[in-house]
Amino acid sequence: MIISQFMTQEHRKCDTEFAAAEQAVANGNWSETEEKFLAFSNNTLKHFKREEMELFPAFEAQTGSSEGPTQVMKHEHEQVRGLMGKMAESIESQDKDAYLSLCESMMILLQQHNMKEEQMLYAMCDRVLPSELKESTLSKMKHVEL
Amino acid sequence: MFSQNGLSLDQAPPISVVFRFFFSGALFGILAGILILFFQNHIFDASDIKAVILTHTLTLGAMLSFMFAALFQMLPVIAGVALPSPVKKANAMQYPFVLGVFSLLLAFNFSTPWLFITASFLLGGSLLYIALVMLKNLWKLPNHSSSSKGMLTALLSLTIVILLALYLTGTLGGLLEGNYYTQIKTAHYSFGLFGWIALLILSISFQVIEMFYVTPSYPKLVSQYLPLTLFTLLTMTTIIGVFNPSIWVASHILIALILIGYSLLTLKRLTQRKRPLADATVWFWRLGLSSLIASMLTLFITNFTELSWVKSLSYIFFASFALSIVFAMFYKIVPFLTWFHLNSQGYFTAPMMHEVIHPKTAKKHLYIHLTTIVIFVLSLFIHLFIFLAGMLTILSFGWIAWQIIHAWKLYNYTQETGEKFDMSSM
Q1: Which of B17, B19, B184, B363 could make an S-S bridge to B280, C-beta 3.0–4.6 Å?
Q2: What ipTM does the predicted assembly reach?
């Protein structure tokens, strides 16, 4: 379960950073919000890149399917990226209500996405990838940078 | 859309499937409020048929509709189960279900055997059908989470509730002798309240509390074994209870302790949440869990007192528990689905969640709901308050109905007038 463990930990880390940015907005501290939001978005985007560059291709090659679950996950990554852009705009205009409203959508969207990955896709990766390939994919993912 | 090894990664069912169940639940809730105005304090006497009618309007008409709205929405997300042709399935279930509820309520009111038989066919057919479809899909899952296992157990409980109900309506309809009527009746409502309603809420909470509010996850021991423990306890008590009905006293005490433990744990989880803002949904959860504790404490006390109002308090608090949690889910699901579907269809102008239902609107409903509970409790001692309680019930469910109408209108308006990102050009 090494894929599941590593990737799930990353999800949790992003959740914590997301909550910290939300807290900063609630406190009305926009410079701190910017810093925390940047940490959240950078780490989330890095996580997506790890999946799209390494994990998904390995899974697709192993199962011979590139139009299955990985395609849906990539589509959802796009939705998250779109929301991130809107959140950044609301920070720029210091629009608290818009930011908090976007937070709600982002949180549910991300959590639904994470749940599906953790309970299905990562579990499937751990099951179908041979252990050597799993080790090497994990190692490559750790080296991916934004 | 996409599936592999029986797993679907589709995100959400059609919006109309979820909205229609929330809407019919709200309408049954309004009906319950109207019935309270007519039945007045008779609703607190469990042996009075008026109490039975109101209980079924709320638990079967309102709660079951709400819970199926949540199930249709949560099954693909929590368990990875996307039901094929959800609109057809929702139609096949909802129409006979609504007719069945009315048949049953009329059957209770007029003690008409053929209405009991009609209700048996309509409710038994529609509910067993959808419960078995969902069970079959859940059963096939290769990877189970504690929530999906819990949902499976809750749906098994629902199946048992229906089968036990069919025995009761079969007896009232003159088809069965009903030698075990009293024992089966106890098993029916115990399975309904604890095996279905409480178990489903509990199972969903294992995932949504962590997901919506960013809290530490539940201890594995609790999330893995609690649903199965409750289910086993109820099943064993039902079997033993046929020969020795007094076993239910011990069983109810154990269930009360388990649910109090679960509530305290969840309340603690909510204090550990990393998301800073306590919106109305957090308070709905807190109110619901505190109501469950109050309900279980009063249930415990009923074993040692003859005072009928203690039992009534237990019912009021249980209803407050179930409805508060349903409302908490409602205020997350409806705005999210409206935004999500429009956003997925490529509308730039998709309304944000706060534009669908503003947090202040949800908070106003929280106050209405809280006042309703308080007035119900007061009406046990000052009888005239029951009219106010009835009117507040109508207002509370009317509030929900209006939010669905508003979200639906906004959804259609955006589809008709909104600017769209042309996906076909990609």
Answers
A1: B363
A2: 0.79
